[in-house]
């Protein structure tokens, strides 16, 4: 059943993003920012963790999870290190994903030529 809910909830997040493109005529940057902030707000109110427990990969794969990771890391580090932890916590939690994106992007750029 977890696969069903992952598909439904993850698909719903994608549908929301597509509606922002088609109906509201938002740019990809605006849509991306809104979805990241939505994930951050949901985690700030403690709603994202129960959603992860319910839908699994359906909510950990979309971009909303990046906002969740930023806030989750900042809040955890703030409890341990105070106000400076807010800044450092965000980077500790998300650094592996960002590093992987940079490395794989560089490797992809070595093997493929962009269309002009």
UniProtKB/TrEMBL annotation:
In this record, what's one Pfam family? SpoVAC_SpoVAEB
Keyword Transit peptide applies: no
User: Which parts pass through the membrane?
Assistant: 6-24, 31-48, 90-112
Q: Does the keyword Transmembrane apply?
A: yes
* UniProt keyword terms in alphabetical order: Membrane, Transmembrane, Transmembrane helix
- According to UniProt, the name of this protein is Stage V sporulation protein AE
What is the species listed in this Swiss-Prot or TrEMBL entry? Answer: Virgibacillus necropolis
